[in-house]
Design brief:
Layout (H helix, E strand, L loop, with lengths): L1 H13 L2 H9 L3 E2 L4 E2 L4 H14 L11 H12 L3 H19 L2
Antiparallel strand pairs: 1-2
Helix pairs in contact: 1-2, 4-5
Length: 101
């Protein structure tokens, strides 16, 4: 509330229109936490429900240094590490299906 008062006073004294815009945007943000207020506990629950219903999680362990190699390979292809690994798995499955093993 203190910051809003300062901006309101600054707006009256300096008469800058951009400050008015900032003043009206302030209620959208939680200034003490730096988070957008629109992300609520209900949204978190909905996201968790979606992950439980639609997504399987697999944890893989790799030797030290291999993670960086995978990240570099994914970056060179312009995809995320997750997508890179999924593409590699799909390719291996397709190859196995074609060879009949």
């Amino acid at each position: 509330m203190y910051l809003r008062s300062i901006i309101a006073v600054y707006d009256i004294v300096c008469q800058h229109s951009f400050v008015i815009i900032c003043y009206w945007l302030l209620p959208c943000y939680n200034l003490s936490m730096g988070k957008y207020k629109g992300y609520t506990e209900a949204r978190e629950r909905a996201n968790e429900k979606y992950r439980k219903e639609k997504i399987d999680t697999i944890l893989i362990r790799v030797p030290k240094g291999k993670k960086e190699t995978i990240q570099n390979a994914a970056n060179s292809q312009g995809v995320s590490v997750n997508q890179f690994i999924n593409n590699a798995i799909d390719s291996a499955i397709d190859t196995a299906a074609k060879s009949g093993t």
